[in-house]
Amino acid sequence: MRILIYGAGVIGSLYAALFAEAGYDTSIYARGKRLEALRNNGLL
Length: 44
Prior knowledge:
Elements: E1 2-6, H1 10-21, E2 25-29, H2 32-41
Parallel strand pairs: 1-2
């Protein structure tokens, strides 16, 4: 199953990590400062 998390704040990032750890193909939709932080540092 493929899952899209819309919003990469604290809660969205938490759920994205949980779904990814459970083996789901997970993507995050982010913008602005959070997008840059994810590009530079990753999620985990």
